[in-house]
Amino acid sequence: MRIQVRRTGGFAGIEKHAEIDTADRADAAQWDDLVERALADGRDTQPVGVPDGFTYQITVDGRTVYCADPRLTDHQRKLITRVLKEGA
Fold first, then answer.
1. What is the rounded average pLDDT of the residues 54-66?
2. Domain locations along the chain
């Protein structure tokens, strides 16, 4: 599974992008569960965020959902953090 996260907004307006391919990872099943829950809570259209807050685009194997601070679910926050930290 290919997971892409794009973060935009914030005070400086700097965009950040990262992606992970879980196909050959030993922890792929954990990623699958996290992705399923994060996508279930996402929106099909970009939400209105708060001033200087971040908005996120999560794309998994061609399906894209959107979410924004401060209304991220725990699953979305965990997925976004992991991808931005571990992804390239």
1. 96
2. 2-86
